[in-house]
């Protein structure tokens, strides 16, 4: 006979215990007080200002170093004719002194100290640089002024129909102004040609450009004035009452209109 199946084990039910208790909630804030926030903001601004100053100081130092190297090369090269020998020697000595200072006590100093050194060097070097620039720019400006003079002289003496309404008196005013400007330019350039290149310029390129602008402003309103429009032809007057009957093309009197007579 077969065995009877084993009975399933009996499971005991466990009753869950639930305990109730009050939960205490504490309200707190992590925001700092106003005084602390103000102090932290001030520190942040101070650090930002300090960073900016460090950057500006480094820029001033680099500017001084670059000027020393560039000025030395130029004063011994392109600028040499525009600075006297004694001034050139003094300038080179100042550049050397500034370079030695930069790599010694000036290696770590203030922004103002670098700027003061740079300004002192430029006071010696900039006049030579200016004379060099003027020597290059003056001839170009003079050519432009001469071209302007020639252009306005051609217009003032032109017999073109478009200028026929410009009066002789107005044309002469332009010619007089042109002659005055030409004399000024020739006189200044003659004096400049007698000066050594290391002397201060007699005439500057911007002065020549100003004469060019002034001449154009004087002459243009005169020569650009539009030509007056011709007056319209007057219409033929209407025949008066009682006047003679107009003739036909062959000279005979025009036929009168027939009138109905009652």
UniProtKB/TrEMBL annotation:
Domain of life: Eukaryota
Protein name: Adenyl-nucleotide exchange factor sse1
Gene (UniProt): SSE1_2
